Amino acid sequence: MQLSANALGAHVAQGLKSLYTVYGDEALLVQEACDVIRAQARASGFSERVVHTVAGARFDWSEVIASGASLSLFADKQLIEVRIPSGKPGKDGSTALQDLAHMAASSEETLTLVVLPRLDGAATKSGWFGALDGSGVTVKVDSVDRGALPNWIAQRLGMQGQRVQTGEQGQQTLAYFADRVEGNLLAAHQEIQKLGLLYPQGDITLAHIESAVFNVARYDAFKLSEAVLSGKLGRVQRMLDGLEAEGVAAVLVHWALAEDIRTLNRVKAATSAGKALPMALRDNRVWGPRERLMERVLPTLQTKQLAQWVVLAHAVDGVVKGLPQDDLPKAPWRALHHMATVVCGHCAMA
Asked: For the sheet containing 110-116, what is the strand order?
């Protein structure tokens, strides 16, 4: 049974199931979802909690199975947590999880909670995940992307009785806050709590945030490519500066940007040869946000322009690897700024 994290509170209030699987890559939101289940478990008499953290290929899964099969010595009901930080239980773990799912489905004295990171398609189609999903409730915890971050911040401020001004000024305040915490949701949560300690309930102004909120943003090279395709030049420049400051390898950033250029070039060639755009994107393994962005940008691109971008990407690759190129900055990150600006500038007009 699939359930959204937002619906979890209402679900557990109506009664707990015997097996829950919570997975996602945002540690704060996964923790909060698990806390909802734990709190309801305590209220329902599951007074003992046993935690197993799966670490290494030699983890003894028999202990997990024994916990699920035995009654508690100290309480009528027990909560068993199985944490798998890698998301890969292995062969023995796969068998054990299927056995655990079968036992949990028929147990009223034991509540089992399996905690996982974000899973790829192969994992969600595996036998062990299918057993967990089929025997219990599966909660996928989605990340908060940059576009949704201002509203998330406003909601969290509201939970502690604070709010920004209405209208455009308030939106600018939230956007400034989001820029300072992007990619670091746990730190964002801590900065929001700090505002609750420093200022009374009521309006929070831009001046409050400027003086109190640290710049704790963390950037992802692959999110950078989405920002470029979105034509958001200011954000692209911030992300490049942030990635450089964090010590991310310039070659990784170049690969992410250059791969988008090469993909655009291949898809354009395919559509020019008569292939439908959606099919050409799928053939090049483009989906999700990148698919929507490329669908918007591609009709505005000419084959000649894309060929020039491919040449530019090749030249910047040389700079990144220590080979100066004519008409390009000698510093690798300045060259990356130049390439990103060229592509982003066109995407902004698409």
From this structure: 2-4, 137-140, 19-23, 110-116, 78-83, 48-53
Based on the number of CB atoms within 10 Å of its own CB, is 246 exposed (0-12), middle (13-18) or buried (19 or more)? exposed
Tokens of residue 170, six digits: 């308030």
The pLDDT assigned to 71 comes to 59
How much is the average pLDDT of 43-56?
Answer: 89
Angle between helices 332-349 and 250-272 (to 10 degrees): 40
Is pLDDT of 174 > 90?
Answer: yes
What DSSP state is assigned to residue 15? -
pLDDT digits (tens, 9 = 90+) for 203-230: 999 999 999 999 888 898 889 999 999 9
What is the CATH code for 2-140?
3.40.50.300
Measure Cα distances from 74 to 49, 77, 98, 282 in Å: 10, 9, 27, 55
Contact 197, 162 (CB under 8 A): no
DSSP 261-309: HHHHHHHHHHHHTT--HHHHHHHTT--THHHHHHHHHGGG--HHHHHHH
The upper half-sphere exposure of residue 241, i.e. CA atoms within 13 Å in the direction of its Cβ, equals 10
Dihedral over Cα of 126, 128, 132, 135: its sign: positive
Class of domain 149-212: mainly alpha
* String of DSSP letters for 41-60: HHHTT--EEEEEE--STT--
What is 221-349's CATH number, 2.60.40.10, 3.30.450.20, 2.60.40.1120, 1.20.272.10?
1.20.272.10
Question: In sequence order, which residues have a C-beta less than 8 Å from that of residue 272 and are 6 or more positions away?
Answer: 303
What's the longest Cα–Cα distance across the chain?
A: 75
Q: Name the token pair of 202.
A: 């009521």
Q: 269 pLDDT exceeds 60?
A: yes
